[in-house]
Amino acid sequence: MTIQEKQDEIIEEFELFSDWMDKYENIIQIGKELPMIEEQYKTEDHLIRGCQSRVWLHAEYKDGVINFTADSDAVITRGLISLVVKVLSGHTPKEIAGADLYFIDSIGLTSHLSPTRSNGLLSMVKQIKAYAIAFQVQEQK
Amino acid sequence: MDIEAIRKDFPILDTKVYGKRLVYLDNGATTQKPTAVLEALDHYYKTYNSNVHRGVHLLSQQATDAFEAARTKVAAFINAKHTYEVIFTKGTTDGINLIASCFGRGFLKAGDSILISAMEHHSNIVPWQMICEEKGATVKVIPMNEDGVLQMDQLPALLDDTVKLVACTYVSNSLGTVNPVREIIKQAHSKGIPVLLDGAQAVQHIPVDVQELDVDFLVFSSHKLYGPTGVGILYGKEEWLNKLPPYQGGGDMIKTVTFAKTTYNDLPFKFEAGTPDMSGAVGLAAAIDYVTAIGLDNIQKEEQALLAYALEQLTAIEGLRLVGKSPERSGVISFLYKNTHPFDVGELLDKQGIAVRTGHHCCQPVMDFLGIPGTARASFAFYNTKEEVDILVAALKKAAAMLD
């Protein structure tokens, strides 16, 4: 599936929930499916500091695509990063660097991307893009 | 107290969030404003807005009169001996920075120390660290126990010859602890050391009389006392304010200016450089009128009853941990659910229409001491009701079920 198809699938899934609490229940559930970062990568180096919760992210570049694993000490944040990881994992650096993550807005979670929200999601998206750009440069050399 | 009538004075309390009636339990961060305050601001701008102190024209005189009347009102509210002991600031943080800077420049030297408490807000830590670093002085700390109660037995030894000032919060914004400030002031004064009280979380909950407390400096914010944002108060004893050098330079704080030498104005203007927040002062005066009409004693009684009810109800939730267990408390209740992140709890309460605060509440040393990332904090005002506590409890139970 392309990044766009994955996003559209998530949007469709979230259309089922009219109530915020149901939506959050689903986000928490999705968080449980997040490919867990290996303990060895849960270090300061892999820590993305958000103001309210901590997020660890590890990127692995293999066979032309990047796969991400992550974790957070807050379950809602874990759900949100799980969605982002699902959408972007397994794609090429170029696809990831250029991806427009419109699904976050479509499922009503734009507020989580506000810099003042500081829950780590925005920093994580930035970090993922930074990895993608770095691997892209590496590839071109 | 007729809470339903009082709630009608606060239009924002009718707001709906996510289709639910707002339950506003973030009063420790800022309180809502009664119509009387909103109307005072509106009236100020519509009828006599003008710059104070310098104008010869009628509007300027009216604005000056209103601004100075606000000062008199604040002085009466805290029972200051003299009106000129009341300085308008931008807020609590500004007031502490003013004293840290002026006291530091006037009285601190290498080897001296400032004594603060373990539960200070960052605004009562960082300004002291900054001036101490500049002067080669140090910041010392009165420790607290796991319940969030100051270890007063350690105070006599801490008040050694190096201490030049004690800066302590009256009520903790993260734990709700009411500190034994009379005892702290008594002990400090017995060694000739002045005391600054951070009253940001106190003046809206507890009647404060600066003469009875014999406190040297008191700082607080208008916006936590039902007044507008952007204005605050520094009270200082006349003898101290006269001894301190001025803070910022500018208009209003001078008597005469030549390129060779400037002479400074008398109190209170010496510490009020630039155009002050006139409308803010007028709004604060209206807030004080509003609070005084209800009676701070009545407000305190009502809030204590509500706090006791909330504590009882929250303690009954299985897995809920209270953070801060001082027997003397006011205003806020901090809590955690099992080992979940406070952010999750806050988010799930928000989506049920309840406004609480999550995080370290600008008290990172408190959280480090307790070994937690932060807390969720419900903070109460006299317009909150038992029904709202019940809504909070039901919402917490729902959140807990989702987080289990």
Automatic annotation (TrEMBL), chain A:
It holds the Pfam family SufE. Transmembrane segments: none annotated. Gene3D superfamilies: 3.90.1010.10. Residues 11-130 form the Fe-S metabolism associated domain. Belongs to the SufE family. PANTHER family: SUFE-LIKE PROTEIN 2, CHLOROPLASTIC, SULFUR ACCEPTOR PROTEIN CSDE. This is Fe-S metabolism protein SufE. It comes from Filimonas zeae.
From TrEMBL, chain B:
Residues 23-392 form the Aminotransferase class V domain. Its cofactor is pyridoxal 5'-phosphate. One of its GO terms (molecular function) is cysteine desulfurase activity. CDD domains: SufS_like. PROSITE patterns: AA_TRANSFER_CLASS_5 (PS00595). Gene3D superfamilies: Aspartate Aminotransferase, domain 1, Type I PLP-dependent aspartate aminotransferase-like (Major domain). It catalyses: (sulfur carrier)-H + L-cysteine = (sulfur carrier)-SH + L-alanine. The keyword S-adenosyl-L-methionine does not apply. Catalyzes the removal of elemental sulfur and selenium atoms from L-cysteine, L-cystine, L-selenocysteine, and L-selenocystine to produce L-alanine. This is Cysteine desulfurase. The lineage of its organism: Bacteria, Pseudomonadati, Bacteroidota, Chitinophagia, Chitinophagales.
